[in-house]
Amino acid sequence: MIKIAEKSRAEYFRERRESRKSFNVLLDKEKAEAFEKKLEELKKSKAQWLNEKIDEELNK
Asked: Which residues constitute the domain of residue 28?
């Protein structure tokens, strides 16, 4: 975890919102749980997996 001085906390989150974007979807519960189990086996986070898939699609 990154230590942030209280004075710069607002600035940190302002910059973070400018450089990042949220991506949310609703999935069938069983499908989502199976996907999470698969990611656990691969030792990847959802963000890591999604970033790899997006890179693959963009580099086609």
From this structure: 24-60
